[in-house]
From TrEMBL:
Name of the protein in its database record: Uncharacterized protein
Biological classification of the source: Bacteria, Pseudomonadati, Pseudomonadota, Betaproteobacteria, Burkholderiales
Species of provenance: Massilia genomosp. 1
Length: 81
């Protein structure tokens, strides 16, 4: 299945979050397991190649900083419950 009408963008449909997360765990889990802090996790994802942090080679510029800020904001919002 494609997303946004772009054949290069793939979309998967999973029956559960666990099923969706399993391929990530299989490929990247060992590298990020045990990371407890947003900064450490986001930088590790770049180091292990999940995202290059460079748009010139398919990554997202400043990926680690962007992800770190997203994680922090989710934590803040979760405390508002």
């Amino acid at each position: 299945m494609t997303a946004k009408g772009d054949a290069k963008v793939k979309l998967a449909k999973c029956a559960s979050f666990e099923m969706a997360a399993k391929p990530f765990e299989d490929r990247w889990g060992e590298g990020v397991r045990g990371k407890k802090d947003a900064r450490e996790l986001s930088r590790t994802l770049v180091t292990i190649g999940f995202n290059t942090a460079k748009s010139s080679n398919g990554g997202t510029d400043n990926y680690a900083s962007i992800l770190e800020n997203i994680i922090r904001m989710v934590k803040v919002r979760m405390q508002c419950r």
